[in-house]
Each structure stands twice: as structure tokens, then as C-alpha cells.
Amino acid sequence: MTNLKNTIVVLIFFVIGVSNALYFHIGETERKCFIEEIPDETTVIVNYKVELHDPRSGGFMPSSPGIGMHVEVKDPDDKTILSRVYSSEGRISFTSHTPGEHVICMYSNSTAWFTGSQLRVHLDIQVGEHAIDYTNVAQKEKLTELQLRIRQLLDQVDQITKEQNYQRYREERFRQTSESTNTRVLWWSLAQTLVLVVMGLWQMKHLKSFFEAKKLV
């Protein structure tokens, strides 16, 4: 029973941790990509804000309206599920349909608005139930505080189930890769053994012909 409780606590903390907030600098020709491991049928929300470097103060200021970000999202099968230009600040939302590593790439939509400057991009990636605005849900569905809490717990349980299914999927893929690697190693070893046997027989035959030609046998 204690182990079950510990497992549930670990899983809950794992789901709670599925939110990445950071910022990075990007030049006018640079492309930044991030990899997120996402279960299937999971909502992902990316909040971002772009700031332009100010050479006079050495800091960063709000970017001009013309500067935006081109965002591209690809699924584990390398299929593009989202590709469009956004403004300098906004929110991107998409739903995964295939479990695995999703690649989120961002780059400036144009190089004509600034020359040799840097952009600072604030990025916050929220996955699963963290992507749900429960305040808006409560107002829209007129939920009480208790009903809202139950809704959050149900969403967390659903996300934990998706994470567990994804871990099983990863384990299956890893097992398939291991079995494939072991099979290839086995066939390679057999091929090496066969080559060595053939070379040994050929050398023995060659030596026998050499001794017979020299009349040593």
C-alpha cells in the first residue's frame, strides 16, 4: 500500500513538472528548436513574448509590431502539424495525435526590421492539464469550487493515465529496438564466423597445393 502511494505521488509530481518556462536569445537568421516528449491526444500551449535588444541601454525592450515569430511544430513522424507566423507576443495551441518527441522550432519572420540585433524570446510550454485555464472553465460552466477541484483531479488522473500509456509505449519501442539490434549482432557474428571458416578452408587447401607442388607431402 505504501509503495502504491509513493508511486502515485511520484506520478503527480511528474505531471506537475510538465511545464517549461525559459528565455533564449536568437539572431536574425537563427533557428531555435525544442524537443518535447508528449503523449497522444494531449493539449500543448506555448506562451511566448519577443523583446528586441537595445544597444544604447544594453537591455531589452518591447519589439516593434513588425517583428514576429515563425513557429513550426513537427510530430514524431516528422509531419508538420503547425506552421505559421505569429506576432511578437501570443499563445500557440496544438493537440498531439502521435505519442513521442515533438519538435517545436521558432525563428524570426523577417530580417528587414533589425540588423545584427538580438531578440530575447520568453517561452513557456505547458503540457496536459497545465494547459487548461480552469478559471475560464469555472466561469463558462458555472462550477463551484468543489466541482472545479474535482474537475482538476479528474484531468490530473487522465493525464497520469496518458503518461503511463506513453511510458509503456516507450518501453515497447525500446524492447523492439533492443531485439532488432540483438538480431543484427547475431547475424553479423554468424557472417563473420562463416567468412573465417571459408578463409580457413581456403588457406588449408592453398597450403596443401603448395606442399604437393614442392613434393613435401
Element-by-element helix/strand order:
HEEEEEEEEEHH
Q: Structural class of the secondary structure composition?
A: alpha+beta
Major β-sheet profile: 5 strands, antiparallel
Taking the alpha carbons of the first and last residues, their distance comes to 81 Å
Description:
The chain is α+β, with helices and mostly antiparallel strands. Helix content is 42%, strand content 31%. The strands form two sheets. Strands 1, 3, 4, 7 and 9 form a five-stranded antiparallel sheet that branches. A four-stranded antiparallel sheet has the order 2-8-5-6. A hairpin with a 5-residue loop joins β5 (69-74) and β6. It is elongated and about 100 Å long.
Question: Descriptors for this entry?
Answer:
31% strand, 42% helix, elongated, alpha+beta, 217 residues, disordered N terminus
Give a quick precis of the structure:
The protein is built from 3 helices and 9 strands; from the N terminus they run H-E-E-E-E-E-E-E-E-E-H-H. The model is unreliable at 1-18 (pLDDT under 50).
Record the SSE blueprint.
Blueprint (H helix, E strand, L loop, with lengths): L1 H15 L2 E8 L4 E8 L4 E11 L6 E3 L6 E6 L5 E7 L2 E7 L4 E9 L10 E9 L6 H8 L3 H69 L4
Antiparallel strand pairs: 1-9, 2-8, 3-4, 3-7, 3-9, 5-6, 5-8
